[in-house]
Amino acid sequence: MNEQYNGRNPKRVPRPASPEDRRRISAQGNSRDEKTRRRNPPPSGRTGTSGSRVNSGRTVNSGRAAAGRTQASPAANKSAVKVRPGRNVMLAAILMGLVTVFLIILGVQSCSGKEASAYSSKDKNSVLLATETSAEGGDKTGLPVFAEYTDESKNLEIDSEYGILIDLSDNKVIASKNGEEKIYPASMTKIMTLIVAYENVKSLDDTFTFTSDILDPLYAENASQAGFAAGETVTVRDMLYGCILPSGADATVGLATCIAGSEKDFASLMNSKAQELGLKNTHFVTVSGLHDDDHYSTCHEMAIILEYAISDPYLREVLSTYKYTTAPTPEHPDGIELTSTLFSRMAGDEADGIFIQGGKTGYTNEALNCLATFAARCTEDMAPYVKPEYL
Predict the structure, then answer these.
(1) Whole-angstrom distance between the N-terminal and C-terminal Cα of the chain?
(2) Residue range 92-103: average pLDDT?
């Protein structure tokens, strides 16, 4: 028999070929190679090495060794991979597209960060100024400075007896009408109330419970209110919005009592802030703007107060919000929807190309209609992202 057994493995293994068998197999292989070469002569100039022929970028082995089919060389294995240029181009395009999108996103975030850095501050009580320069080269305290009147400043042609228009880009007065004369600010006062409350509260989530002692006098005065009820516990955040959007006197007195203990003590904080801002013709008695002969300001100084407020991102957000709903309470399970008295009165006939971004209205019998706003050359959609240009 031509088979033998492996002692450790019962499987049968072939008997080794004799020298005579190897010579016979080698002769047969050489004969087959010669027949193959005669049937398939290699194309001129396209002959591979080691008995291989190249055909359309694919290497095909055409020889046989004594022990069977030969193994292709490493070089032949590499050339045996079919090149697919179309797929590679597509993958490269996808990769470049992803890189481009990443770079665009990175650029937008960088630009947004730079724009936000012009307004944002590291903490709640650190306010950054929008206006940096003055006629003397800038205020070193980081506070707003009075706008400069120039030969180009014009008389403001409005129905009101008082007004001022300031260009924040160069801090120049564009036009004015009795802008330095004393006025009663009415509910424009609440801009300062907003500032002082925000800068002195520990947390916007602090709460305060309203009482009849606070609300009843306001009803008697016929003061505008946000709608908070006696016994209702409200956050400082909701009172800030209640102070500005519906011009709620209840919210202002609630803030004053919560932070300073009384309206009188809170008004003292407001006057201290006015002094800090360098205001010489402003004095506050009430936190809501209800009339008092000793409660006054000027258009120019109210502009300084507004400029200071909008230099803080959060205060600017409050002053530019159209609608806001307070947190639910047992007294108001769905919250209270607050609507801006400013935006609800805008008729859409404002100056072309200019959008009023926010501000505060006011009215008393003595002050008549009052308005303090900030605006920019932009559309309504872009207003939250554009730096105010005019007061």
Answers:
(1) 112
(2) 65
Q: Give the best-scoring range by mean pLDDT among 49-63, 110-124, 152-166, 319-333.
A: 319-333
**304, 144 contact by CB (below 8 A):** yes
| Prediction pTM value | 0.66
Backbone angles phi and psi of 101, in degrees to 5: -60, -40
Q: What is the mean pLDDT of residues 214-220?
A: 96
Note the pLDDT tens digit of each residue in 22-50: 555 555 555 455 444 444 444 444 443 34
Q: Are the beta carbons of 295 and 189 closer than 8 angstroms?
A: yes
Instruction: Report the alpha-carbon distance of residue 111 to residue 378 in Å, rounded.
Output: 18
